[in-house]
Amino acid sequence: MAGTIEGNLAKLGITLPVPAAPVANYIAYNIVGNLLVVSGQIPFVDGKVAFTGKVGAGVSIEQGQEAARVCFINLVAQVKAACGGDLDRVKRVVRLGGFIAAGPDFTQHAVVMNGASDLAVAVFGEAGRHARTTIGVPSLPADAAVEVEGMFEIA
């Protein structure tokens, strides 16, 4: 039987992908006490990076927001794996960190990251409200336009 969070995902038309395996010497997530820390996720769709390049220079703000949304979906897939398939174990989205590949004159990083933040609230309700850091970077792995990491409180 699907739980509340799975129901929210279904209402949003979201099917979680198989979590991506780490591509270097790190683990996808780490649980310490009741905190789950998920490594940064890039906008993989069907095994390919769906949004590449720099936001504001070839990648629109709207595409950047969609990339952040896809990154959050990939985060949730990792959370589901970490929670043994039970997303209702998530008590709170504690923090999201967003990395936006952009040029030095780009200033709309927070607007791009709202793609992930808005989806966190849509999926987890009030428990999805979180602290956040969003920074611009000159490049990301695989030329991804956005990367999002997360910290979750779990039962």
UniProtKB/TrEMBL annotation:
Domain Endoribonuclease L-PSP/chorismate mutase-like: 8-144
Signal peptide limits: none
Gene3D superfamilies, alphabetized: RutC-like (3.30.1330.40)
Protein name in the entry: Enamine deaminase RidA, house cleaning of reactive enamine intermediates, YjgF/YER057c/UK114 family
Biological source species: Falsiroseomonas stagni DSM 19981
